[in-house]
Amino acid sequence: MQWQNTKWPPTRTAEAVDCKFYTCSSMPGIVHNYLSGEPFEAYKESSYFSRFLQWKWLERQPVTKDTFRHYRVLGKGGFGEVCACQVRATGKMYACKKLEKKRIKRRKGEAMALNEKRILEKVNSRFVVSLCYTYETKDFLCLVLTIMNGGDLKFHIHNLGNPGFDEERAIFYAAELCCGLEDLQRERIVYRDLKPENILLDDRGHIRISDLGLATEIPEGETIRGRVGTVGYMAPEIINNEHYTFSPDWWGLGCLMYEMIEGHSPFRKFKEKVKREEVDRRVRKDTEQYSEKFSEDAKSFCKMLLTKNPKQRLGSKAGAVEVKAHPVFKDINFKRLEANMLEPPFCPDPQAIYCKDVVDIEQFSTVRGIYLDTTDDAFYSQFATGCVSIPWQNEMIESGCFKDINDVEPEENMVLNVEEKTRYPVSKTKRSFFYRLFRRGGCISSGPSEKEELPTSV
User: Which of 24, 197, 283, 385 sees the fewest Cβ atoms within 10 Å?
Assistant: First the structure.
């Protein structure tokens, strides 16, 4: 008997009894075939399909610099500044990472920029910064990311009181980093640049991994090699240009755990002037030293992660599952942590600014002798693709726009735009988020102007 020859869903007869003989792998195709028939035709005739078209039409609206208000500079990256920005229509705050087009071209960084953008699009984790929008201006390519008001771990380790954290705080951050690395590895991504300045705190005190410029995907069953990373944090196998998979990230976690407790990295003291060759030699040959700041569990955890041989390193066999099982995490409930149900040991002060003063952030020099032309347009078109679905949808839900879109509209108040093949409400006296967002797209007659009641500063 074949499923194609039976009714769906099967009745409580022999057909239903026979379902146990069919593998789970065949079920998605069976369900898809059924739903794509009569149920989908009925769905297209319902009001729910009109709402779906409204939603997707709105999601695909062009994103430009005018979509946002821009505020103070927060810091600088490899290709340009990072500033705070706000979506005009919803008031949602983000961080805008600007990549200067001429600087990218001079340093031949197109592949790196596009790689970071594509990986950020792919990853959806509460422990990794989310990419929400991409757009371009005349001079910049812009990544609009989760804003992290709490600053980076480097600032907290070295600029607030004595260097380092108490062990409870370090363990909490290490647990969240474990979850972030697990989410990346689930997508076959190795991060390769784990260091304090790349780990950011949000306004509640939770951490997220940022700056995925050196991250890369590893095809199933394969290994890679490449000498990339930051001096003092690169694993021995990277320095030796050997093949690897995810082992460098567990080494990086060991370096970061050590620095959070001790106050400096395991193979170079803070602001110590030493040549790169010497640091690399220490990483390959020397054994890190532990002070009385480390408990036995914390010392064991760091030693197992900082094992020179990647095949013997903690995490090399079962990945994050193996790392999470270490006794240092005996007081961490990972299920509650992943559900965002654990309170961090430190909460940033909402009145404090956990980054350098604007005047202390170095200005980028002017790029000379580089000219942009039409040969660069293909790269720009791949980069500036507008909003990213899941973060954008979350923003719509948080702002209340989702509710506006899903308000039932009487049929007489709906107008069909044949060219767009979608329906949207005729302007009404009551102005909603939905109305304002659609009006920005220029698809609703404007009528009298209205002031937006949104914050004017960060």
Answer: 24
User: DSSP letter at 239?
Assistant: H
Structure token pair of residue 175: 């647990």
Q: Look at residue 451 in the predicted model and tell me its pLDDT.
A: 36
371 phi/psi in degrees, rounded to 5: -125, 135
80-105 average pLDDT score: 90
Asked if 265 contacts 338 with a C-beta cutoff of 8 angstroms, the reply is no
Q: Are both 83 and 169 inside the same structural domain?
A: no
User: Binding site for ATP: which residues?
Assistant: 97
222 CB-near residues (< 8 Å, 6+ apart) = none
pLDDT tens per residue, range 273-283:
889 999 999 99
201 φ/ψ angles, rounded to the nearest 5 degrees: -105, 140
Alpha-helical segments (H) within 246-376:
247-262, 276-285, 296-305, 320-324, 334-338
Token pair in block for residue 66: 């005018």
31-79 pLDDT, tens per residue? 888 888 888 888 888 888 888 888 888 888 899 999 999 988 887 777 7
Tell me, yes or no, if the pTM score tops 0.90. no
Of 18, 139, 183, 193, the catalytic one is: 193
Q: Are 165 and 379 in contact (CB under 8 A)?
A: no
Task: Answer whether residue 196 is part of any domain.
Answer: yes
- Pair 247, 340 in one domain: yes
The two tokens of residue 68 are: 């946002």
Active site (annotated) includes residue 202:
no
DSSP 204: T
Q: How many CB atoms lie within 10 A of CB 190?
A: 21
